[in-house]
Amino acid sequence: MLQPQERKNSEQLFERAGKHIPGGVNSPVRAFKSVGGNPIFFSRAEGAYVFDEDDNRYIDFINSWGPMILGHGFPEVVEAVQMQAARAMSFGAPTELEIQLAETICEMTGIDMVRLVNSGTEACMSAIRLARGYTGRDKIIKFEGCYHGHGDSFLIKAGSGASTLGVPNSPGVTKGTATDTLTAPFNDLAAVEKLISENPDQIAAIITEPVAGNMGCVPPAEGYMEGLRALCDKHGIVFIMDEVMTGFRLAPGGAQERLGVEADLVCYGKVIGGGMPVGAFGGKREIFQHIAPTGPVYQAGTLSGNPLAVISGLTTLRYLQNHPEVYAHIDHMTERIEDGMREILENSKLPFTINRLGSMISIHFCENEVMDYTTASEGNNNYFKQFFHGMLNEGIYLPPSAYETWFVGNTIGESELEHTLYAAERVIEEMSA
Ligand code: PLP
Predict the structure, then answer these.
(1) Using 50, 70 and 90 to split pLDDT, how confident is the model at 315?
(2) Which CATH class is domain 75-322?
(3) Which atom, in ligand 1's list, is nearest to the CA of 121?
(4) What is the mean pLDDT of the chain?
(5) pLDDT tens-digit profile of 385-431?
């Protein structure tokens, strides 16, 4: 039996946190609800490792849910942030740094224009508003299992039976909002075509994660993204790729570059801030000119383009732009994790499916192919819970939900890989006993 670590300080902090912070956390997935147990409180981080309040050390496969692609405490980023903090923390007025970040984003991704915001949620909400303002249409299509932040329009699930109308999946989202969001299964072009034909000239945008990372990792089937692109072209629909997770991770130009499919609007977050709160949405000039103050579609932010956040993102992106070997390294390490996990699981009696694209990977404890939300839901969550807690006790910090992808950072080296696979072998052996 693997011994649970001592986490007394985390336990005490969690109890204290619950008194003034709902559920003790500032974002629900941190609460460990889907794996059981209490969240861990962290105090510091270095390279590939995070340290909790009891001084336990973990190899970090969350990396702040993606942003820390260069590892924790990356010296160039830390130094740039420190220097900027001494110079000025915020103006709420234009700075040259914002131009530099916009230029870098456009160079790396090939988009024409970009607006900085403070989170991925804001980026996606604003992109939808822009698409609606540009087309003069109200409805959007999103995909079951894709996450685009907590904006009202996205917290919608498919209606039942023959209804194509969405239903709120959180109290507080109005029925009126839900009627404008249509949902289709991921990787199902026929379902999208049906929605479009049932709602002629009413669809403003199709928004999708190009490689889904919020139902585990689910890559697009061959031709699927190209198919969405073609449908958007045919019906005058704005094609929005939500690259909050994939942007600057799958390639310098994100999924657009990796998959060779261009969107009309793109949303960014996570890596773009290098660990600080930054989001962005951007795209084609023709559409972007409709945003305020150039055009009538309103969008704003007191701290948008904040110099501290911008310098962190800019330093991170410039490093990635100048060191393409980062992408080769994280892809290679993730491939070796896949190979190692596959071998371990094949030698066990446990059902499994591993999905991977580049440095995004996830394990579902089921035998079927995982290609959408329904098939992702067939994973055995009890196995996942055991795997998650077993790995945690071995000093490996994985996302606390079967519906999240692992995020592999550039500081994962040989010893971290060895430790991870050795831990997995022990945990899977215990699970199979
Ligand atoms: N879009 C995708 C694909 C995401 O994965 C996330 C967050 O995980 C978001 C949007 C929302 O980003 P944020 O949490 O920064 O608001």
Answers:
(1) very high
(2) alpha beta
(3) 16
(4) 96
(5) 999 999 999 999 999 999 999 999 999 999 999 999 999 999 999 99
Q: Which two tokens stand for residue 66?
A: 């993606």
CA of 400 to the centre of ligand 1 (A): 16
Supply the residues annotated as catalytic: 147, 242, 270
Residues 227-261 have pLDDT tens digits of 999 999 999 999 999 999 999 999 999 999 999 99
Distance 211 CA to ligand 1 centre (A): 13
The CA distance from 401 to 145, in Å, is 13
Nearest residue by C-alpha to atom 13 in ligand 1: 120
Give start and end residues of each alpha helix (H) in 215-295: 224-235, 254-259, 285-288
d(CA 124, ligand 1 centre) in Å: 8
| Domain locations in the chain as residue ranges | 8-73+324-432, 75-322
Contact by Cβ (8 Å): 265, 171: no
Q: What integer pLDDT is reported at residue 1 of this predicted model?
A: 44
Rounded Cα distance between 411 and 408, Å, is 8
What pLDDT was estimated at residue 162? 54
Q: Is residue 7 within 8 Å of residue 56, measured between CB atoms?
A: yes
Do the domains 8-73+324-432 and 75-322 sit in the same CATH topology, yes or no?
no
- Whether 119 is in the pocket of ligand 1, judged by its Cβ within 6 Å, is yes
Structure tokens at 225: 């993204």
**Residues forming beta bridges with residue 132, ordered by sequence position:** none
333 lines ligand 1 (CB under 6 A): no
Which residue among 270, 272, 357 has the greatest number of ligand 1 atoms within 8 angstroms of its CB, and so is best to mutate? 270
Domain 8-73+324-432 = CATH 3.30.1360.120? no
The answer to whether residues 334 and 381 touch, using CB atoms and an 8 Å cutoff, is: no
Q: What is the ipTM of this complex?
A: 0.99
pTM score, two decimals?
0.97
Instruction: For tokens 């697009």, name the residue.
Output: 220
**In this predicted model, what pLDDT tens digit does every residue of 145-188 receive, in sequence order?**
999 999 999 998 876 655 556 788 899 999 999 999 999 999 99
Q: Please state the rounded mean pLDDT for residues 11-19.
A: 97
* Rounded distance between C-alpha atoms, residue 400 and residue 34, angstroms: 7
- Output the pLDDT for position 158: 73
Residue with tokens 């410039």: 318
What angle is formed at CA 313 by the lines to CA 296 and CA 119, rounded to 5 degrees?
A: 50
C-alpha 217 – ligand 1 centre gap (Å): 14
Q: Is the peptide bond before 293 cis (omega within 30 degrees of 0)?
A: yes
Which tokens go with 112? Answer: 């024409």
Q: Tell me, using a 6 A CB cutoff, whether residue 105 lines ligand 1.
A: no
